[in-house]
């Protein structure tokens, strides 16, 4: 076949888009030259694939159908190519899908691991995954804890404590030492309340420059500490504000400690209250 | 276009002798020529390529005795020349029909029944089992992708096999023909079984 007869020209010939001279030239070669015949047929297969993949323009699609889907035999031939392509795509997908989703399949094929090595490697991987999950959870908990402590510091800063808000509830708590056993102060947080202010009665004779409060829910290890609190000497209370969203159902234990000028800790009073549902 | 004459034995012998002095080769060439002419009529968008091919072979048979002594070159060029005339006549006839109908009918999309598709799929599975593992893997690799990914992958595949893309296309085309023939045989068998059931 002449060199100037390119695949692109063959494609146009197949779609009937060439002049009579070119068509005669290609047809003549098609009839007499086995190599040329092969080229026409392979170009035809490419065109059939383009049709099946919907890569033809509307006009070319019409030309294609008028030449390659006229007879029952041609239509069957198209169906056969379509079925082969669909089969190949299905097979390729089924082969690639497990490899994409199975770490072991990928590892074994890439590293050519012996089956004996699977068990120790599996154990190591499981331990690594568990440790990672534990570490991530701890990091998340720590981050949340620090966030709450920052919020507590903000709410209990002297300037903020003077602010009054409608979304705040108060509880007056007496130290356990002056309360009869079994008496519990209960708090049912209304939905619109954002802050709970605890007014902790200070019954010691001595006052301290600052106080610190530690809040902990009974049965939970986590506790929050608020420092640099000041006593309201007139009414003998230390106010501490807690964000309502950190309170969940249960009993809370609060420890109030006086802090001396040199940072030494003075006596501690303990208080409790219950958050009800 | 009507054909009243069947090809006489003498005319057929002369055509075969004209195609090649070796009768065995000549018969193969004649069969191939018939197939190719049909294909060319299809490519010209003719409605009945088989009928037109018969017409070409009839006309050549009628003229072979006169033309052969003076014709120079490959005899198939003469068949081609006759085929072009037949195609032109067919084109004129179609044009007349179209102008009478005043509308060029659009080619419909291919309609297939689920049963037809299922039969081809079933035969394909049978035929793939007849292929060697290497051939099956090559067909799978060749047809698994589409559009640009297909072109890129076929280039890669040819490199891996140490052949040109053109050779790869021809190799796969041969396998495709082999599978097609197998499927057609399988479908014919199914058809025969069905006919028996109907009887």
Describe this structure in words.
The complex is a heterodimer of chains A (277) and B (199). Chain A is of the alpha+beta class and 277 residues long. Chain A has three domains: 7-67, no CATH class; 69-155; 167-275, Immunoglobulin-like (Sandwich). Helix content of chain A is 49%, strand content 22%. Chain A contains eight helices and nine strands. Chain A has helices at residues 7-14, 20-32, 34-52, 58-68, 72-101, 103-111, 115-155, 158-161, and strands spanning 168-173, 186-187, 195-201, 210-217, 223-229, 231-232, 237-243, 250-259, 265-275. In chain A, the strands form two sheets. In chain A, strands 2-9-8-4-5 form a five-stranded mixed sheet. In chain A, helix 2 (20-32) packs across helix 3 and helix 5 (72-101) crosses helix 6. The radius of gyration of chain A is 41 Å and the shape is rod-shaped. Chain B is mostly helical. Chain B has two domains: 9-99, Rna Polymerase Sigma Factor, Chain: A (Orthogonal Bundle); 112-189. Chain B has helices spanning 9-19, 23-43, 49-67, 75-101, 114-130, 133-143, 147-161, 165-198. In chain B, helix 1 packs across helix 2. Chain B is globular.
What's the gist of this structure?
Chain A is of the alpha+beta class.
Radius of gyration of chain A: 41 Å
Oligomer: heterodimer
Strands of the widest sheet of chain A, in order across it, are 2-9-8-4-5
Mean pLDDT rating of chain B: 87
Which structural class best describes the helix and strand composition of chain B?
mainly alpha
Count the domains of chain B.
2
Q: Into which percent range does the helicity of residues of chain A fall?
A: 40-55%
Determine the mean pLDDT of chain A. 84
Architecture (CATH level 2) name of the largest domain in chain A: Sandwich
Provide a count of the helices of chain A: 8
Number of helices of chain B: 8
Going by helix content, strand content and strand pairing, the class of chain A is alpha+beta
């Amino acid at each position: 076949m002449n060199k100037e007869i390119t695949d692109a020209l063959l494609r146009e010939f197949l779609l009937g888009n060439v002049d009579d001279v070119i068509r005669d030239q290609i047809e003549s070669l098609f009839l007499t030259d086995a190599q040329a015949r092969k080229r026409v047929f392979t170009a035809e297969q490419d065109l059939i694939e383009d049709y099946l993949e919907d890569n033809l323009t509307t006009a070319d699609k019409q030309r294609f159908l008028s030449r390659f889907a006229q007879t029952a035999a041609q239509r069957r031939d198209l169906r056969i190519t379509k079925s082969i392509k669909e089969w190949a795509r299905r097979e390729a997908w089924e082969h690639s899908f497990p490899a994409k989703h199975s770490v072991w399949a990928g590892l074994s094929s890439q590293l050519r691991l012996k089956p004996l090595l699977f068990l120790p490697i599996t154990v190591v991987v499981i331990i690594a995954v568990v440790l990672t999950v534990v570490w991530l959870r701890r990091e998340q908990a720590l981050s949340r804890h620090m966030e709450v402590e920052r919020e507590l510091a903000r709410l209990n800063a002297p300037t903020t404590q003077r602010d009054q808000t409608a979304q705040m509830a108060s509880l007056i708590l007496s130290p356990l030492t002056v309360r009869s056993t079994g008496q519990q102060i209960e708090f049912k947080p209304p939905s619109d309340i954002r802050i709970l202010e605890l007014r902790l009665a200070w019954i010691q004779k001595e006052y301290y420059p600052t106080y610190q409060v530690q809040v902990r829910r009974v049965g939970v290890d986590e506790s929050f500490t608020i420092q640099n609190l000041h006593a309201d000497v007139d009414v003998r209370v230390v106010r501490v504000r807690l964000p309502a969203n950190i309170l969940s159902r249960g009993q809370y234990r609060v420890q109030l400690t006086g802090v001396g000028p040199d940072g030494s800790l003075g006596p501690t009073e303990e208080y409790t209250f219950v958050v009800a549902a | 276009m009507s054909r009243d004459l069947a090809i006489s034995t003498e005319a057929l012998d002369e055509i075969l002798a004209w195609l090649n002095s070796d009768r065995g080769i000549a018969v193969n060439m004649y069969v191939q020529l018939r197939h190719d002419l049909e294909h060319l009529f299809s490519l010209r968008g003719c409605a009945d390529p088989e009928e037109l091919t018969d017409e070409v072979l009839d006309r050549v048979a009628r003229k072979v005795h006169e033309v052969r002594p003076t014709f120079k070159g490959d005899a198939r060029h003469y068949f081609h020349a006759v085929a072009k005339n037949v195609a032109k006549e067919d084109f004129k006839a179609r044009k007349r029909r179209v102008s009478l109908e005043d509308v060029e009918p659009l080619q419909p999309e291919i309609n297939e029944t689920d049963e037809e598709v299922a039969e081809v799929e079933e035969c394909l599975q049978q035929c793939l089992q007849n292929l060697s593992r290497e051939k099956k893997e090559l067909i799978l690799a060749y047809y698994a992708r589409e559009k640009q990914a297909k072109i890129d992958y076929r280039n890669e595949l040819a490199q891996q096999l140490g052949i040109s893309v053109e050779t790869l296309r021809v190799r796969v085309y041969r396998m495709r023909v082999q599978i097609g023939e197998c499927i057609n045989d399988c479908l014919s068998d199914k058809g025969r079984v069905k006919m028996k059931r109907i009887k």
